[in-house]
Amino acid sequence: MIAYIRSVFCAVGCPTAMGTSAMPLARFFTTRLHTALEPWQSAARKGRLRDFDLAPGAVLPVALVRPGPAGGCADPLCGLLAADARGFHRRNAPRAGLRRWGVPTAMLLDLDRFPSGEAYAEAVSRRSRGNIARAAKKAARLGVTWAPIRPESYAASIAAITGSKRVRSGGPVLAAWIGTGTRTADTREAPAAAGCPAHWTLAWGAFIEEAEGPRLIAYLALRRVGDMCRTHELMGHGDYLRTGAMKFLFLEVARWLMDRRAAETQGLRWFMYGAMEHGAPGLHEWKRLMCFEPANLAFEPAAARASGAA
Question: Considering the domain boundaries, does residue 171 fall inside one?
Fold first, then answer.
């Protein structure tokens, strides 16, 4: 069966034999399947609201997202990111009656609740009874470090991470079943600065020292539009999950966000981590332990942004 799937991918352009990556095509098919199943998944998993002392039909708080100045920014990428965010978050808009059962529920962290990254780390430690803090400290003892990365410069390592585990808490990883096909070595180029501090996609990696040098074993990418950022991609290598590297990396990036020292963190209010209904129970519990809570999303109307900019 796997051989058949691989042959189908190659027939439609899977570049395994050419030494490039099949990951974009795998992502395309995964996204299509996810979109088709999402209404049914959302309806079936509304019971997870009980983990937050809410009834499955409860009216949830609405987070008003402010995407940025009405006139846009000088960087043309800002408009593209804002359009992507509107499409991505439109599914989370509040619904009435039966329609609300078929839409996903955003998992949000209100950054204003935490005066610093340390305050957030303490809240996570309390909710997880110290388990996440201990895992992060274990990673630090093992020599795991973290740094900003340019994902394109670590294509080989990211392909190895993707292919290291066929089934994860978010579901099957299609690229791990068909093979990523990546053969080029990491170039390890440093990431460029964000073109706009209010609209960006940035990534960080967790590294462990090996004989050949630092090895990327986990990565996390966030996308920001206005006063909200959301998880864009994150994954850890299957062979290193027990090191606590993913927990370590997530906490360190969250500290960076909440310490608000960098220009890219100024004005942030919301941090979104997918939907409550996505993934296996383990992923749902991980989000809860990291203090994310269910909410609906709404974008600030264009008229309000225009009047605010006047």
Answer: no
d(CA 21, CA 81): 25
Q: Which residues contact 287 (CB under 8 A, 6 or more apart)?
A: 107, 273, 274, 276
Residue 101 sits in a domain of what CATH number?
3.40.630.30
Q: Sign of the C-alpha dihedral, residues 84, 86, 91, 92?
A: positive
Structural domain contains residue 124: yes
Dihedral sign (CA 123, 126, 130, 131): negative
Task: Give me the DSSP letters along 86-100.
Answer: HHHHGGGS---GGGG
Residue 195 belongs to some domain of the structure = yes
How far apart are alpha carbons 293 and 124 in whole angstroms? 13
Between CA 251 and CA 289 the distance in angstroms is 12
For the chain, how many structural domains are there in total? 1
Per DSSP bridges, beta strands 270-275 and 228-236 are: parallel
Tell me how far apart the alpha carbons of residues 203 and 191 are, in angstroms, rounded to a whole number: 9
Q: Where are the beta strands (DSSP E) in 196-283?
A: 199-210, 213-225, 228-236, 270-275
Structure-token pair, residue 270: 């919301």
- On whether residue 170 sits in a domain, the answer given is no
Print the domain residue range for 112: 45-52+60-150+190-309
For each of the chain's 310 residues, which pLDDT tens digit applies? 333 333 322 333 333 332 344 556 656 666 666 667 777 888 888 999 999 999 988 888 888 888 875 456 777 788 888 887 877 777 776 666 777 788 889 999 999 999 999 999 999 999 999 999 999 999 999 999 999 999 999 999 998 998 877 666 666 666 655 665 556 788 899 999 998 999 999 999 999 999 888 999 999 999 999 999 999 999 999 999 999 999 999 999 999 999 999 999 999 999 999 999 988 899 999 999 999 999 988 887 644 444 444 3
